[in-house]
Design brief:
The protein is mainly α and about 260 residues long. Helix content is about 65%, strand content about 0%. It starts with a helix and ends in a 15-residue tail after the last helix.
Length: about 260
């Protein structure tokens, strides 16, 4: 493989690693964290970052790595985004398998690192504690499979529309990563209670097998729904906003 092609795959590998390590890591280590209220006080003080902090962490991982390596690979870090980039004409179809492999491997390495670090806390049990996605009994608020599939597909479709629009040649230059990262933050604010938010099959795969507790058996939903959403968003943007023509040959998703 040519050096340029390897650089693209490495960019996707490290970008996905950072997304999983930063986003899922914030959920595992920092979402819930309490401290003793101190002498003369009763109870504990909540020091965790909560849903808002986790949502922001996911957004920041995308912003930082899109600026760092987006000019190399397009800054997808997500198989659904790569699929949307292909169907919209932003990425050659021949690049899709390599991107997917790099993304999944990067995510899995991050999941492994999170698991090893988490086990350093006395009494830590990985089962149900690795920020996995789920539906039914494994949804944070017990949302049904149908509700989770709809939410994941819809949010991923809009994510693709934001990505393709923010990196369109007509968009303000240099602000694409900010719009994309803020979009991912908003997506998490909406859907953490629904599914723990995937919109990214590599993110879901990264922690499912370490988490156990039903997550591996439900992983299929967090491939199917985001990929369907990515396909829809990747088709809709060029059809609706580029004069009905697919934008073959245009810049990759983080170039702006």
């Amino acid at each position: 493989m040519e050096v340029k092609g390897i650089s693209k795959l490495l960019a996707e590998f490290f970008g996905t690693f950072w997304l999983v390590f930063g986003g899922c890591g914030s959920a595992i280590f920092a979402a819930k964290n309490v401290a003793d209220a101190g002498q003369g006080h009763i109870g504990v003080i909540q020091m965790g970052i909560g849903f808002l902090g986790v949502a922001l962490a996911f957004g920041l991982t995308v912003v930082t790595m899109a600026y760092a390596v987006g000019h190399i690979s397009g800054g997808h870090f997500n198989p659904a985004v790569t699929l949307g980039a292909v169907v919209s004409g932003r990425l050659p179809a021949k690049d899709l398998p390599g991107y997917w492999v790099a993304q999944v491997l990067g995510g899995l390495l991050a999941g492994t690192a999170l698991w090893v670090i988490a086990k350093g806390m006395p009494g830590f049990e990985a089962s149900g504690s690795m920020a996995a996605n789920g539906y039914g009994d494994h949804s944070p608020n017990h949302y049904t499979l149908a509700a989770v599939l709809l939410a994941e597909a819809l949010l991923t479709a809009f994510f693709l529309i934001v990505i393709l629009g923010a990196t369109d040649g007509r968009a303000p230059k240099g602000f694409g990563p900010l719009a994309i990262g803020l979009s991912l933050t908003l997506i998490h604010l909406i859907s953490i209670p629904i599914s723990n938010t995937s919109v990214n099959p590599a993110r879901s795969t990264a922690v499912a097998f370490f988490n156990g507790d039903g997550a591996p058996g439900q992983l299929w939903a967090f491939w199917v729904a985001p990929l369907v959403g990515g396909l829809i968003g990747g088709l809709l943007y060029p059809l609706l906003f580029e004069d009905g023509k697919f934008a073959f040959g245009k810049s990759s998703t983080a170039d702006a």
